[in-house]
Amino acid sequence: MTAAPTAPPRSDAESLETLAELVADGDVVVLSGAGLSTESGIPDYRGETGSRRRHTPMTYQTFMRDPRGRHRYWARSFVGWRQIRSARPNGGHQAVGALQTAGLLGAVITQNVDGLHQAGGANDVVELHGGLDRTVCLNCGDVAGRAELDERLQEANPTFGPRVDEVNPDGDAELPDELLDGFVMVGCLACGEGPLKPDVVFFGETVPRDRVDHCFGLVEAAGSLLVLGSSLTVMSGYRFVLRAAKLGIPVGIVNVGPTRGDAKADVRIDAPLGVVLPELARRLAG
Ligand SMILES: [Zn+2]
Q1: What is the value of pTM for the model shown?
Q2: Which residues are catalytic?
Q3: Å from CA of 151 to ligand 1 middle
C-alpha cells in the first residue's frame, strides 16, 4: 500500500478562481502596500526595486531631533513632490474602486501615502501611515494642505530645481548635499513659527493608537482580508493578518514575491496586481 500522493501545487488559474470565490462572498477588507503603486511609477521601499535606493529613508528620530536632517528632507521632498503629484492610479487601483462600487469590498486600509486609492475611485480609505497631501505643524498641530505649502515653497525657492533621477515612496528625491543649503523652508501659517512635518508616519514612528484600533475593528468585522502588494515586512500591517488568521477570517494575498503572511493565507497569488485585479474586477464587477 502506498501513501496518498501529496496534492500538486495549485496553478495560478486555480488560485485566481479561489480568490474570485473569496471576494464574491463580499465584506472584504483590503490591506494594501507599496506593490500596488509601483505600476504608477512610485518605487517600492522593500520590494524588487528597494535595493536600488541610495539613501536610507527618513526616520522619525532624525526628523524630530535634527533640524538639518529635517531641512534635507524638505528640500528633497520639494523636488520629489512633482513626481508624486503627477502619479496616476493604475489598473489595480481602479479595479479596487470597481469592486468596491460593486458592493464586494468594504474599507480599504492602505500603507501607502500617495492618495492613489482615492484617485482610483475608492471610498472609505484608511491611510494607516498618513498621507503626503497634507502637513501637520509640530508646534500648534495645525493640519494644512500640501498644495498650499508647495505654492509657498515655489515662491521662496524660484530657482531651486535640480534634476531628479529618483523619487522615493516617502516623497523625497535624491539631491547632492551641497545643493541642500540653498533651499529655503517655510513655517506654519497658523502659528507663524512651527516647523512642518508631512502628515505621514515615518520609520521609527508609531501609528496613532485610535487609527490602529479602528483598523482592528474593520478586520474583525470582515468576511475576509485581502492583502494587495505588501510583503508584510513591518508589523504595522502584518498584525492585521495575524488578527484575521487568529479569528478564522480567510486571508487572500496578491503580491509579487513571497510575503511574511504566506503561511497564514488561504489563497496566495504571486503575480502583478495590474494583471490580477483587473481580471478579478472583470469577473465580479463587469
Ligand atoms: Zn503651527
Answers
A1: 0.88
A2: 129
A3: 18
